[in-house]
Every structure is written in structure tokens, then in C-alpha cells.
Amino acid sequence: MLFNLQGDTPAENAETAETVVVPVDDRNVVEKAKDWAIDYAPSLVGAILIFIIGRWVAKTVTGVVRRLMTARNVDPTLTGFLGNLVYFVLLTMVIIAAIGRLGVNTTSFVAILGAATLALGFALQGTLGDVASGVMLILFRPFKVGDFVETGGGTGVVEEIGIFVTKMKTGDNKAIIIPNSSITGGTITNFSAKDTRRIDFVFGIGYGDDIKLAKETLKELCETDERILKDPAVTIGVSELADSSVNFICRPWVKSTDYWAVYWDMHEKVKLTFDAKGISIPFPQRDVHMFQESA
Question: pTM, whole model, 2 decimals?
């Protein structure tokens, strides 16, 4: 190896400049490499083995967890989410153990990781709330895919229950995406939860019409419709003497799948049958009486 020794000034450089050859013994480099290998190689090999074996164990445990949840008929969405969560936690522990095997102080590392996780939790507290709500929806199942529900400010048929959001479709084929926290934080009305539903009709007739004839007509219409259930029995009665009409309630029970079909058909049948039998369906009206006084 060559070194140039020079003074501080040009004159000194001219007088003292000379080339010094310092021999370097290659055996020193080899010895240092051997020392480094003896000191650090076992730790490095141990860290690699810990990572490889630990990752294999994490995958095995995650697979067992997923198979157990599948055997217990847990929702596939929740199975995938919890499986990924278990794998992430186990892999994090493996990485920390491998770093500790290299001689790194993992206490500070864990503290930094915990602080970062806490900060991330505060930043994503809304998202984490949606995740927790999604897990609750999948576990407790207040509704399932295909149910017609009203929740979170929307009404429609449930298409997908995800970890973060629930997707629904309206009757006119519009997509509704609702955060899960909005669903669990409010009221859920599931119209498909029960096999049967009651339809509440209100029909009005004129004060001059035959009440008994109107009642018998409604009863006949309900009995001739095969979609209306015999048990529970239909409830028909006068509910109100209103300003312009005598109002009847008619409450038949039907299967949930027949609700809207019967609802629409019944209105049409009542109008046509009442017209045929001379029963009027009055609209809101007001009688005005005028009096004229002589001068």
C-alpha cells in the first residue's frame, strides 16, 4: 500500500515528500473474517432458522385455525379475516424473536412497535370500528345475504357482508354501501327474518254505503286468495269514523315472499269489486253551506 507524506507548505513538501510502502498482511484480513464468523455467524444462522421455522409454524397454526372455523360453519369472510390476523400476529412474534437472536435489544423495538400500533389505532379508529362491527355482524347474524332489510339509512336486499362495509341493492337496482359501524350503531329491521308477515290495509267507504256489505266483500276477497293464510285468521273491522269516510282495517297474513304481490293485487281487487257492488270509496271533501241575507 502506498502513502504520500507531505508537509504543510510547498517547501516542506519538496524536502520531506517521499513515498512510504506499508506492507499489508492478508493473513490479518483472514483472521478478522474468521473472528467475525466465529462471533456472529451462529447468531445469524440462528436468526435465519428461527425465521424459517417460525414462519412454518405460523402457517401451520393459521391453517389449523381456519380448518376449525370452517368445520364450525363460520362465515368464510370472517374465517379469512381472522386467519390473516392470526398469521400476522404470529409472524410479528417470529420476527421479533429473530431480531433478538441477532443481539438487538428487542425491548425498545417492541416499545416502538407498540407506540406505532397505538398511533395507527387512533388514526384509524373509525376503520377499526367498522372492522369490529363487521365481526359482530358475521358472528351474531342479525341478517344474511339475500335478506330484505332497513338499516344504516338504507333499504334493500343484502348482497355482501364484508369486514368494513355491507353492500345492498335497492328495488330499482341501485347499490348501497353502508359502513358496518353505522349498522351496529342503529336499528336493524329485517323484513325477511320471519316466514310470515301481516299486511295492514285501510279501506274507506262512504257514510251512505252498506257497512255489512263492505265487510262481507273484504272477507270474501281474502278467502278466495290462496296466498292469504287461514291461520292466523284475517282481521276485518271498522277502525274509524273519519271526516269523509268510514274506514275499515283488513289485516291478512301471508308468506313473506308473497307480501308485495298480495299488497298490490288486493288494492286492485277491492277497487274493482267495490265499484261493481256500488260501494263508494270517497275522497276527502268538504260541504260548504251558503246563506244569503236580505237587505
Answer: 0.57
